[in-house]
């Protein structure tokens, strides 16, 4: 028992000693620093997209490794607040977080540390929060999804009547979509994708399943397999693991990916992938913070800013796809084509003429902003994060996929 | 592992068939030697972790790993606070599982018991937050959490006591039920469909003593004393130990085994309830999601066993585990070890592996065969 006490004393002394040493070693210089908070790590296609962009942007701007602090696997709990505070402690001048659920924790930290800039991707509150050092950012990814949908439509069309790929016809031109959560970001994404498909195959229908998780390899795989069993001839997804693409590769079902190419793992089925390139925003954010100038409360990237990009076409893409995409892209840039053109879709058989969207997120879930005029739904105009959350005709929700891991 | 098995494993075909080595139970090892061996095991685990770190970063960073280990957990006052918070929660759950394990009741449901308690606290915040005074809300949260934890623990206990069901499977399945209930509740509350609640604006009693998370450390320290006294000086503590050693003995000396099982599990559940309550209310930013407990219900089992169910030893084992977790996270982030979650698991895993392996050598001695004809 005595020895135990001595040991305890030694341990305490060691801890205190280490504390003194590490405090003494801590040199808090005035170097410019930027911190990044990621929900998962590079295994998640979503986070990898951010991590790669953070590396590229900071390298291009000549920041050294000690000036760029990464924090991976930060959950959407007080761990996010703790991490943000820790990055403030470490001397960061600007801190970025990449997941929707991080927002309120970042906002809390922003209120407490007004001298540090806090930036958050996919969030909805900065434009109304009135916190000068808290900012949101997103991009018009619905345009990228639409273009990827064109590639999917071209593939579906090419599969018409081809017995080896399951003989697609007007009667069964069905595609599938594995979504994470049934909320606006996902719904806007799959609707724009679907409208892209329909611009090529007007008879196409789509079934959506939800995994209720941003990253669940097993659930995404299961979701894709369920869709395939239900007759989906092509699949796309908005969830962050390799679950759906690899299920498609196994079943030889063409796949439109998200957040980056999956061609290396799925050479036979990969068609194309759209993604947001965060480099332009990161450069802007760091430049402004470095100069000490204000970052806009709500930043929205576009195809023109280089924020919405498509990968190279995969081997599974149909001939003529690139031309079709280029043509649509030019029309989008010219403003002659609108993704959510209300003449291109119906809801319960009716053409929409009015729709109130929940743009100002006061936590009340009350829609207040008229989003339809001039014949189209104005997505990402009143706020960068998507707010199109309408279930249009042709799309059915096939329920939730739950897999216990 | 029996002597016989090892004799077979180590056997070499010789004429008199004496195995190459066999294991002998140790009874004579001095306490100071035991502790020396344990300390050496921890040091070796850290050495290997340093080598792994160096290997992953191309031969550099062997020394840096250790400075990051300390700086990540103790480098600033804030990091120390975060580590102490991690300690408080893991310690609370470790204390919670201890009475049941001492009774040889294999409760692996602390994860779910804690999670359901956190959910219960959030239920109070969602439905009463802003409608009743904050102190009343916090008291309600405490009551809800404790009751929820107790219910989640007592259901498998009742089934075990009356129908002899397998408590390992039962408590494990209760974890899954708790997870799904949290997902279900969050989906209802987050009406935008995003599946995230964010920071709730009521129900936090953080900074009770002027500093974030410190109140949790104070509460858990008090709880440690209570559990220590309960197990060591109360009749209850003795009874559950007897039930653990032999149910028949317990029956023979007139202990009501069913009552002891149920009572002990309620106690465990109440403590998990407290952990869930602290996870929500004892945070500057209360929330709940399916990963809120984050596997600590399982780590706590290892901690409890390694501490040989002693609350005092548990203080240090828990401290060591959270120190390694926090430090290794910092090391992985600073050195850009991509998947920092995996690196942390490696470091903590090495610690557990080495310390469990050394327990084996503390209990058994290897005796090699003497040379032929000697």
How would you explain this protein's 3D organization?
The complex is a heterodimer of chains A (405) and B (374). Chain A is α/β, with parallel strands linked by helices and 405 residues long. Chain A has a domain at 30-140 and 279-301: Response regulator (Rossmann fold), CATH 3.40.50. Chain A is built from eleven helices and 17 strands. Chain A has helices at 2-25, 45-60, 78-89, 103-112, 126-129, 141-158, 184-198, 217-229, 243-251, 279-291, 321-334; strands at residues 34-37, 68-71, 94-97, 117-121, 134-139, 174-179, 205-210, 235-238, 255-258, 270-276, 298-301, 308-310, 356-357, 369-370, 372-373, 376-377, 395-400. In chain A, strands 12-10-9-8-6-7-17 form a seven-stranded mixed beta sheet, with helices on both faces. In chain A, strands 2-1-3-4-5-11 form a six-stranded parallel beta sheet, sandwiched between helices. In chain A, helix 2 (45-60) crosses helix 10 and helix 8 packs parallel to helix 9. Chain B is mostly helical and 374 residues long. Chain B is built from 14 helices and two strands; from the N terminus they run H-E-H-H-H-H-H-H-H-H-H-H-H-H-H-E. Chain B has a two-stranded antiparallel ribbon. In chain B, helix 2 packs antiparallel against helix 14 (340-363), helix 4 packs across helix 9 (235-245) and helix 13 runs antiparallel to helix 14. Chain B starts with a helix and ends in a 6-residue tail after the last strand. The chains are: A alpha/beta (405), B mainly alpha (374). The interface between A and B is large, with 54 and 48 residues.
């Amino acid at each position: 028992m005595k020895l135990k006490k001595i040991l305890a004393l030694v341990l305490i002394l060691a801890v205190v000693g280490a504390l003194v040493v590490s405090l003494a070693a801590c040199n808090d210089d005035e170097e410019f620093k930027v911190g990044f908070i990621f929900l998962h790590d590079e295994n998640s296609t979503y986070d990898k997209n951010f991590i790669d962009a953070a590396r590229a942007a900071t390298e291009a701007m000549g920041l050294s490794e000690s000036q760029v602090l990464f924090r991976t696997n930060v959950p959407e709990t007080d761990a996010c607040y703790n991490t943000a505070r820790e990055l403030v402690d470490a001397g960061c001048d600007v801190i970025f977080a990449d997941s929707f659920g991080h927002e309120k924790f970042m906002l809390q930290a922003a209120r407490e540390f007004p001298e540090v800039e806090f930036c958050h991707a996919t969030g909805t509150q900065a434009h109304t929060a009135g916190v000068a050092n808290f900012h949101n950012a997103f991009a018009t990814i619905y345009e990228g999804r639409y273009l990827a949908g064109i590639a999917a439509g071209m593939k579906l069309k090419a599969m018409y009547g081809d017995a080896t790929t399951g003989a697609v016809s007007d009667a069964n031109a069905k595609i599938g979509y594995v979504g994470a959560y049934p909320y606006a970001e996902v719904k806007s994404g799959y609707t724009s994708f679907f409208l892209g498909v329909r611009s090529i195959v007007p008879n196409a229908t789509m079934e959506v399943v939800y995994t209720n998780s941003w990253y669940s390899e097993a659930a995404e795989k299961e979701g894709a397999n369920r869709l395939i069993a239900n007759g989906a001839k092509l699949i796309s997804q908005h969830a962050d693991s390799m679950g759906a693409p690899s299920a498609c590769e196994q079943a030889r079902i063409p796949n439109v990916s998200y957040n980056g190419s999956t061609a290396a793992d799925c050479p036979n089925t990969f068609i194309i992938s759209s993604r947001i390139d965060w480099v332009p925003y990161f450069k802007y954010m760091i430049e402004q913070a470095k100069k000490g100038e204000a970052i806009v409360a709500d930043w929205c990237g576009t195809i023109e800013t280089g924020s919405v990009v498509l990968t190279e076409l995969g081997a599974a893409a149909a001939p003529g796809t690139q031309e079709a995409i280029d043509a649509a892209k030019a029309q989008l840039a010219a403003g002659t084509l609108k993704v959510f053109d209300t003449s291109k879709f119906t809801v319960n058989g009716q053409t929409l003429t009015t729709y109130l969207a929940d743009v100002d997120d006061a936590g009340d879930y009350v829609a207040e902003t008229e989003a339809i005029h001039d014949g189209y739904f104005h997505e990402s105009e009143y706020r960068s994060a998507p707010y199109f959350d309408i279930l249009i005709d042709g799309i059915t929700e096939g329920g939730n996929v739950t897999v216990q891991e | 592992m029996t002597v016989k098995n090892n004799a077979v494993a180590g056997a070499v075909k010789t004429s008199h068939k004496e195995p190459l080595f066999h294991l002998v139970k140790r009874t004579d090892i001095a306490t100071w030697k035991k502790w020396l061996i344990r300390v050496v095991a921890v040091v070796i685990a850290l050495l290997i972790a340093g080598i792994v770190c160096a290997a992953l970063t191309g031969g550099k960073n062997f020394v840096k790993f250790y400075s990051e280990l300390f700086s990540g957990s103790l480098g600033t006052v804030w990091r120390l606070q975060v580590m102490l918070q991690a300690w408080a929660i893991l310690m609370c759950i470790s204390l919670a599982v201890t009475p049941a394990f001492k009774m040889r009741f294999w409760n692996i449901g602390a994860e779910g018991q804690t999670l359901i308690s956190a959910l219960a606290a959030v239920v109070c915040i969602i439905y009463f937050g802003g409608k009743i005074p904050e102190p009343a809300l916090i008291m309600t949260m405490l009551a809800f959490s404790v009751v929820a934890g107790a219910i989640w623990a007592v259901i498998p206990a009742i089934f075990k006591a009356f129908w002899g069901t397998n408590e390992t499977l039962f408590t494990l399945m209760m974890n899954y039920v708790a997870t799904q209930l949290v997902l279900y509740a969050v989906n209802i509350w987050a009406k935008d469909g995003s599946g995230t609640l964010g920071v709730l604006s009521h129900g936090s009693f953080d900074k009770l003593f002027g500093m974030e998370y410190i109140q949790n450390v104070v509460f858990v320290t008090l709880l440690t004393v209570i559990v220590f006294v309960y197990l060591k000086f109360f009749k209850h503590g003795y009874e559950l130990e007897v039930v653990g050693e032999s149910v028949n003995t317990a029956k023979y000396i007139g202990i009501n085994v069913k009552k002891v099982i149920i009572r002990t599990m309620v106690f465990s559940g109440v403590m998990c309830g407290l952990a869930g309550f602290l996870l929500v209310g004892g945070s500057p930013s209360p929330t709940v999601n399916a990963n809120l407990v984050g596997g600590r219900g399982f780590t706590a089992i290892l901690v409890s066993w390694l501490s040989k169910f002693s609350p005092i030893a548990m203080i240090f084992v828990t401290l060591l585990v959270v120190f390694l977790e926090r430090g290794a996270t910092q090391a992985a982030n600073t050195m850009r070890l991509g998947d920092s979650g995996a690196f942390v698991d490696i470091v903590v895993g090495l610690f557990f592996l080495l310390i469990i392996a050394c327990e084996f050598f503390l209990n058994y001695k290897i005796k090699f065969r003497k040379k032929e004809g000697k």
